[in-house]
Amino acid sequence: MQPLDDKGFMTLKDLKNLFHKDLDAIHGKAEVQSFVNLVLEYHLDLKPIDIVLSGETTISKSKELLFISIIDRLKKEEPIQYILGETEFYGLKLTVNPSTLIPRPETEELVGWIIADHKHLDKISILDIGTGSGCIAITLAKHLPNARVYALDVSKDALDVAAKNARLNQVDIEFIEASILESTSSKLDVSSMKFDVIVSNPPYVRKLESSAIKNNVLNHEPHLALFVENDDPLVFYKAISNFAVHNLKPKGSIYFEINQYLGVETKQLLSQFEFKNIELRKDIFGKYRMLKAIKS
Ligand SMILES: C[S@@+](CC[C@H](N)C(=O)[O-])C[C@H]1O[C@@H](n2cnc3c(N)ncnc32)[C@H](O)[C@@H]1O
């Protein structure tokens, strides 16, 4: 059989076996199989079927070393998305690095809700607060091409990634570096603007929940994106609701991803800010993970 490169000895089958031998105990067999597929697609442009059919094909020495270094990083439970530097969200390719949260499937559901509600509307303005990789803002800009989309984050490093992702996906977004917790900050130059939609997936994991969080998240994803203090878990929801009271147009809507354990409390908070038609929605796993409300 023709090798992919003439210098190596390890075959694709050997490599696959090495992944399973070194990683199954940590990640489980099915997860490791998905690592093999992702890594070989990214680095050798091979589909899962090619891996099966070309098991005896040898790989080059340099690729062998690269794959061994990837296995070492996976042993340390580094997320595969950071290792490859990319992920997929709502069918779009996005760059990610340790300054950005890795976008989650439940956030795709939230974005799907906003798209379904607004696809027939023209010229709306949207603000995404805590944009991270830009996944929400970019997907909305892509699917609602007449919308003007703004995206805010306190992290300059995350905003750099988000801006790169906007260019990659050919959408025009205005990025703002500011803290939503300091709405008096002169940097918050959206404070005089009115939006049709405000959306946020803010930090919402209480520090007391950290023992239930997997190592790949806890040890590698940005804590700035994840955690809030135990005694004020809705701090971002309060600040954003307060901002939305002033900066949403009448009948404008607010969409939140929420902590599955704090659905009732988050709903109550929105009603204290006199939002109407507050709707909690479950994700595909049956957990309350999203909320929508209308400004009265
Ligand atoms: C849960 S992540 C969400 C990232 C992205 N929107 C997503 O859904 O994958 C929360 C984001 O809020 C940002 N953030 C944290 N504190 C903030 C603050 N005070 N003001 C604005 N953004 C903040 C973090 O940098 C992070 O990107």
Automatic annotation (TrEMBL):
Keyword Phosphoprotein: no
Keyword Methyltransferase: yes
Residues the record lists as binding S-adenosyl-L-methionine: 130-134, 153, 201
Name of the featured protein: Release factor glutamine methyltransferase
Reaction catalysed by this enzyme: L-glutaminyl-[peptide chain release factor] + S-adenosyl-L-methionine = N(5)-methyl-L-glutaminyl-[peptide chain release factor] + S-adenosyl-L-homocysteine + H(+)
Keyword annotations: Methyltransferase, S-adenosyl-L-methionine, Transferase
One Pfam entry name: MTS
